[in-house]
Amino acid sequence: MKNAYTPTQEQDSLPGKLGARFLTAILPALTPGLASVGRRLPRPFVSAHFVVALEGARHMHWLVPPPQLDGRSFTIRIEDLGLCVSFTCRQGRFRPLWNPVPTTDLDISARLADFASLARGTTDADTLFFQRRLKIAGDIDLGLIVKNWLDAMERPAWLTHTGQGFGG
Amino acid sequence: MQPSSRTIELVAPAGSLAALKIALQAGADAVYLGLQNATNARNFSGLNFSEAHLRSGVELAHHMGRKVLFAINTFPQAGRVAEWRAAVDVAHSLEADAVIIADPGLLAYARDRYPDMRLHLSVQSSATHADAIEFMREQFGIRRAVLPRVLTLAEIEKLIRQTSVEIEVFGFGSLCVMAEGRCLLSSYATGESPNSHGVCSPAHAVRWHDQDGHLEARLNDILIDRYAPGEPAAYPTLCKGRFAAGIDRSTDADMADHALEEPTSLNALSLLPRLLGMGVSALKIEGRQRSPAYVGQVTATLRAALDSAQADPARFAARPEWQFSLSRHAEGSQVTQGAFERPWK
Ligand code: SF4
How, if at all, do strands B214-219 and B206-211 pair? Predict the structure, then answer.
């Protein structure tokens, strides 16, 4: 029987190879160091770099935000690194929040490994939530839109087949 | 080794095209899914299928020799019946293999309009005995009934002997307080319930607040639970909340406890040979709201277990790795065989 389903094929592309290498080798090695400096980095600085990554993914068509995200603000906290990023989505593009408001529309926290396994699509968000490893506050309807958008996304092959290096 | 002459169809949930693909890859015989509106009982923001995705999903399933069951399992609201009828029309035009319906008026519409369409009676219609199921067969020609999770194995076995309608039971997933099709609990807090709006505890009414590791769940500002640090959380439904349910006599303080039901997941893994033996036609996995990762892992586990049970029912044993894989995804800190095993009944 022919199986018509194959993951998207960016595995051999240069960004795919770099992404896989970053996830499997570089990021785990950097994690302890990042944790010690993470807490001291100013939030706008971290947010700007994070948004560059989001925009890169958007340009590669891996991450195309749905219209419901427009005008909404988000905070992501990577607990074990002490990192916190705030950004918004405007006209389909991600933008850092230079002057973060105290509360954004949606606030999501987890450890790096759990965020990574969610990004790879190997863990169920509700399972992490039941186990108290994923925290969500703010507009839960927006949270569901984000969760279901990420769930419905076809991952590039390099992301689903690699990145097992840091316990996700 | 004595293979079973019977088989059970494994029915997996799909809240997105990605979940449908993973379910089929993992070995589901059929997937069930619904539209992005109140016509199905998992009407969550961003979940479910556009018509374009439905078309690709049905094509893929048929290409692989599998089935798509189309859930239109809420109750049409007064003045808006056309939306529910339109969903039946879509299911027919996309060549879904069956529609899962709870409402008798909608069953009548489907039967009259599309006499060849295969009709499954939804769990939401709460048909728990042979008379009710036979009545629905005589009136609407239903071919399968999904049983509410209130019956023991002995009751299911007796029921199967009394009807020609195929019987589908739940094999894994979160549990309700077992008032399927009749639950109005969430409407007391939010004005919306699964049967009217397709969603229990609508997300716009849910708020989570984490303070020093204590997690509060509120539904339309009503505090329904407070979890201690590290304590497993559950879906924010009224039925699973903890309320002042008595007085601790030693301290005279209110005792917060589960007034209706403790969050629990059904797991019928070890009962597969008995379900097979009594002639159950299909085994359903709950969870269209869950991620493709859940769908893939739970479907693959139950596929392996079903294949093993069918190959040699007498020597079937639920493997620890299967149990581990399922319990990882369970809501609440315990799994149960639910009403299937009730020695006192
Ligand atoms: S309130 Fe509980 S029992 Fe009622 S529909 Fe929701 S989950 Fe099921």
Answer: antiparallel
